[in-house]
Amino acid sequence: MENRNNITMFILLGLSQNKNIEILCFVLVLFCYLAIWVGNLLIMISITCSQLIEQPMYFFLNYLSLSDLCYTSTVTPKLMTDLLSERKTISYSNCMTQLFILHFLGGVEIFILTGMAYDRYVAICKPLHYTIIMSRQRCNAIITACCTGAFIHSASQFLLTIFLPFCGPNEIDHYFCDVYPLLKLACTDTRRIGLLVIVNSGLIALLTFVILMVSYFLILYTIMTYPAESRTKALSTCSSHITVVVLFFVPVLFIYIRPATTFPEDKVFALFYTIIAPMFNPLIYTLRNMEMKNALRKVWCHRLFLEGRELILKAFQNFTLGFYPEP
């Protein structure tokens, strides 16, 4: 504990040391962050303000969009600030807080994707029992289980890191605080802790990924017997989910399933699950989903119609008052 107090601040090396590349990265990250907010807010408002919120799949999608927003906001604002700063620093306490929140929200996202796969499995493989199995109580229980599992995972990662002694150097070769870069800086033997991190992060991600792929294999096997129209709709929905799963899980597995080592490529792969996947999720779920597109059209066209009508009425009232002024 005494050694650990020697380090009160970490220096983040960020994405690049070249200022021109950093400015370019800032523009790209800013664009992605705005797209994440606009896309996910559109989905959340459209689902909440329509009948889709009653359907379990969109109930989970609403929470997935919320977790995407919170998850990327844990990293992206700090990254954009650092890209314009000469000195990129983060305090010890903020570093540990970021690590805990990042793994908690990442765990929530992984488990929600699992819940969505379970929902599709029940809908396609057990359609007659779907409304009974996927009741609102069951959906709320799944969300509670997702948050509980994510908290256990994140607390484990946090406890493995918080007691590490740091006595220098204090440069983290990353753009946010994560376990492996911190293990590299610890002035103690971290091999056992590295194995625990692999079990806690890598194996959980791998097991979840295998479960998801098996569930979608069973779904695809089942829909082969469906009529052509129903098969197309089920394939469209499942392909959207599979795309999201691959975008998120492949980079996570690349980083966490191996021994506790860091590579320069880790930062590029981390961009996929912290920024790229949350940006593409709204596009994937809306462009390939007719119900979602209809909900967007109804909610936003209706709002634009009401606002337009109010503007026209006000303009007409002002126009008539010009000819018939009030006494």
UniProtKB/TrEMBL annotation:
Q: Which InterPro entries match?
A: GPCR_Rhodpsn, GPCR_Rhodpsn_7TM, Olfact_rcpt, Olfactory_Receptors
List the Pfam families hit by this protein, alphabetically.
7tm_4
**Where is coiled-coil annotated?**
none
What GO cellular component entries does it have?
A: plasma membrane
Q: What is its main location?
A: membrane
Q: Where are the transmembrane segments?
A: 20-45, 96-118, 139-166, 193-222, 234-257, 269-287
Which SUPFAM superfamilies does the UniProt record give? Answer: Family A G protein-coupled receptor-like
Q: Where is the G-protein coupled receptors family 1 profile domain?
A: 39-285
Where does it live in the cell? Cell membrane; Membrane
Q: How does it sit in the membrane?
A: Multi-pass membrane protein
- GO molecular function terms noted in the UniProt entry: G protein-coupled receptor activity; olfactory receptor activity
* The keyword Membrane is annotated on this UniProt entry: yes
| Domain of life of the source | Eukaryota
Keywords from UniProt, A to Z, are: Cell membrane, G-protein coupled receptor, Membrane, Olfaction, Receptor, Sensory transduction, Transducer, Transmembrane, Transmembrane helix
Q: What does this protein do?
A: Putative odorant or sperm cell receptor.
Entry protein name: Olfactory receptor
